[in-house]
Write a structure and sequence with these properties.
3 domains; Rossmann fold; Nucleotidyltransferase, domain 5; five-stranded mixed β-sheet; 40% helix; alpha/beta; five-stranded parallel β-sheet
Length: 411
């Protein structure tokens, strides 16, 4: 049996036909992502007759998320943490009581989803109540993920629904002072993406899209990276980092060697996620290229005009940011330890001359801003067949096929 795995990206739609009995990659194709993304899927899969389609999507640059909360810094941090694993990007944070100007700004931003937070469980609730009433009175239909004070959750959800808004309830992202718990909100955001973005009319009115798409692309790639790390479990240094540079975002995936983490962090390693990801919505080489240039300048980096130079800048900034986030897990940054393989993914690397890519790798390894700590002395490969997303799509139903796809990368 063959399955065609499709990744609907912001720039290109990629297809890979896989024999799920063996994990053999039978054929690949790509086509530009179209305004109605189904047209791009049909173009990429033309000639693959009578083959089941499974897909993931990051079209449109992922899910545009606005956070509405009580206090700006805490709300922003909660929103970013909840957005990361959902393949979303935070485009605005509103804090305090929403007034007419704030509501007008929200309408102009036109987010895909609003994450409504505020108050610890049993704590301050007046701002959350006010903001729910304000959103309910806006006469719009943007989905709301409600992840605030649990003591008033039912009341606030009822106000939002009475205003005609789709509401997904989640556990409080800030249940106690100083403790963020974004996991439940992440799950709700992913469900909103599948139901309201994939199942809605923004990307296509064709009902086939909803039957094809199983996940947000970063989720599929993370599953694939986890399979890859499993294949390398017997290696001397089994951990894996993947740098995936796309047209709208650059994502960093990290599955370190758990033994190395335990040795580095000691008992603090208990509770550290076994796999991590950061999604940088301002580091794309096409649709967010001006944001990429600004981010590179802020890091003291120069950036050229050709695709590979842009990809190098995106990879450098994204890896630096990822390692800063990893620093929260303990001394030295957990992601800098226990990594024996770095994978470069994305069209800018796949289609570049191998010698030019070697130059990029050398400069990344020499980076004193952080990236060098991961790449120095580490095996680096390019996912030239672009199989990580496909492996992730197959991992649950066809684990043998997922592993087969990745054996070449695992070395």
């Amino acid at each position: 049996m063959n399955v065609v795995c499709v990744d609907i990206g912001s720039t290109y739609t990629k297809a890979a036909v896989v024999d799920v009995a063996t994990g053999s990659l039978l054929a690949t194709a790509q086509a530009p992502t179209t305004a109605d993304v189904v047209d791009g899927v049909l173009a990429a899969t033309a000639g693959f007759d009578d083959v089941a389609v499974v897909a993931c999507s990051s079209a449109g640059g992922g899910l545009r998320l606005v956070v509405v909360g009580y206090e700006e810094l805490i709300s922003a941090e909660a929103g970013h943490r909840a957005a990361l694993s959902a393949g979303a990007r935070v485009v605005h944070v509103a804090a305090g009581r929403l007034d007419d100007a704030a509501l007008a700004l929200l309408r102009n931003i036109a987010p895909d989803v609003v994450l409504l937070v505020g108050g610890t469980d049993g704590g301050e609730a007046s701002v959350l109540r006010h903001n729910a009433a304000a959103l309910a009175g806006m006469d719009w239909s943007v989905p709301i993920v409600l992840a605030g004070n649990a003591a008033v959750r039912d009341e606030v959800a009822a106000v939002l629904r009475d205003g005609g808004l789709p509401v997904s309830e989640a556990a409080n992202v800030l249940p106690d002072i100083g403790r963020l718990a974004p996991e439940s909100a992440r799950t709700a955001i992913r469900e909103v993406f599948l139901e309201h973005v994939i199942g809605g009319s923004r990307l296509s009115r064709d009902p086939r899209l909803r039957t094809w798409v199983r996940a947000v692309t970063p989720d599929s790639v993370l599953e694939g990276v986890s399979v890859l790390a499993g294949l390398r479990s017997a290696a001397a240094v089994p951990g894996v980092v993947v740098l995936d540079v796309g047209g709208a975002t650059t994502d960093v995936y990290c599955v370190p060697d758990p033994d190395a983490e335990q040795a580095t962090l000691g008992r603090e390693a208990v509770g550290v996620p076994a796999r991590r990801r950061t999604v940088e919505g301002d580091l794309g080489v096409s649709s967010s290229v001006e944001d990429l240039r600004a981010a590179a300048r802020a890091e003291g980096l120069g950036v050229g005009d050709d695709p590979l130079s842009l990809g190098e800048a995106a990879a450098t900034v994204a890896l630096r940011r990822h390692l800063r986030a990893e620093g929260a897990y303990g001394p030295g940054g957990a992601g800098a330890r226990g990594v024996g393989l770095v994978v470069l993914s994305g069209g800018v690397f796949r289609h570049a001359d191998p010698a030019a890519v070697d130059g990029v790798v050398a400069r990344l390894a020499a980076d004193r801003g952080g990236a060098g700590s991961v790449l120095t002395g580490t095996q680096v490969v390019v996912d030239r067949r672009y199989v990580l997303a496909a492996a992730g799509l197959l991992a649950t139903d066809y684990p043998v096929a997922a592993a087969g796809l990745l054996r070449e990368l695992a070395g």
